[in-house]
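Hi Y.,

Following your request, here is the sequence exactly as I used it, all 170 residues.
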Amino acid sequence: MAGGAADCQFWTRVVAKYCTLYELREKTPITVAAASKYFANALYEYKGQGLSVGSMVCGFDKRGPAIFMVNSEGDRSQLKVCSVGSGSLNAYGILDNHWKAKMTDEEAKALGWRAIMHATYRDAGSGGVCNLVHITPDSKIRYPGRDVSQLYYEFAQELGRDIAYEPHDE
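Below is the corresponding structure, written out as tokens. Let me know if you'd prefer a different format.
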């Protein structure tokens, strides 16, 4: 999620409550599309009221994997690749160059770490920790947060680049 922390926390709880009630009532998991549609409809009711929410609703349901982008205005789009927030352009630079339709779990995880690191490292409005969740048909694996600066140094070393400029005496 991206936007105002209070808005994001509030709406996450509202949508989670709705999804839980749906699953209790219907005795079946809610689809990603239905959860994102509810979220978009709820936000649309407050369109123009100053909410600040940009969100990805992601999951794996009976229809397969899905990613929806939902924003404060109640807009909702299904996407293959998504990034939200002030650092999203940096993430898209990585995703546009390295995302493939067929990737191994390890390739996808590495791409996720790299895209999130680039989204946060050069963006003062983003946090300093990369959080990653791997969603499969059977499970959701939440990886421990990783420090953005540490990831930056790891990726630079992997590419064989110096981090700091050191002028040479000539």
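The radius of gyration is 18 Å.

Thanks again,
Q.
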